[in-house]
Amino acid sequence: MLRIDIITIFPGLFEAFLRESMVGIAVRDGHLEVALHDLRDFTTDRHRSVDDAPYGGGPGMVMKPEPLVAAIEKVAGPKGPDRKAEVILLSPQGEPLDQPRVGELAQRERWVLVCGRYEGVDQRVIDLAIDTELSLGDYVLSGGEVPAMALVEAATRLLPGVLGNPESVTTESFEAGLLEGPQYTRPAEFRGHEVPEVLRSGDHGAIARWREERAQTLTRRRRPDLLRSRRGDED
Ligand code: SAM
Prior knowledge:
Number of strands: 9
Distance between the termini: 38 Å
Helix content: 25-40%
Bound molecules: S-adenosylmethionine
Shape: elongated
Strand content: 15-25%
Mean pLDDT: 96
Number of domains: 2
Structural class: alpha/beta
CATH architecture of the largest domain: 3-Layer(aba) Sandwich
Largest sheet: 5 strands, parallel
């Protein structure tokens, strides 16, 4: 069972996500437990404020340190070796999230996700309370909730017992440092486009070779960087 705590000002965004589809089934079947923490419950003022104007000027607002650090410490304990769980801030400045990192997180018992909003969080929150910053990619979203959902879903499908056929995980894109090649289902011919003969041949060796070759070709064309890191050379 994986337990994930999520700190957010929009817990309602997660309701349907945690109820529906594969994640919903994983929660119902006891593979995944997600606890939502409303950041506003950790404010102390009448307006339940979580943001303030940036020092030095500039557009937008910045998330205040007091409620965020209070929420993180309540959920995970103070930063340090005795902390109960790794605390991850979703941030465009973070390390890019990839499948190996998702696989590593899926093996843990527990982690905490912190969703930023506005122009981001006060740096002292990062210095005092965050263990890791992860980015979903080189673009800017309005909040960390969608990246948090992406991470939860990617990890959940790796939990033992969640996917009906565990083999579907090992043949997918990025698992072997390759993109997955083309896939087909019935009918055998659609608008003049036929399913490749080899896939209908029943020859499992030939099918495996064809799939590997197509995965290599696609990866070489679209993501040569994956092939380079697969070979172990960093350039
Ligand atoms: N001012 C920040 C910057 O330029 O890097 C962007 C802040 S963004 C509008 C608000 C919040 O959305 C961030 O604090 C973060 O939690 C989340 N966010 C936005 N884009 C993200 C991404 N690519 N990956 C992870 N989180 C992201």
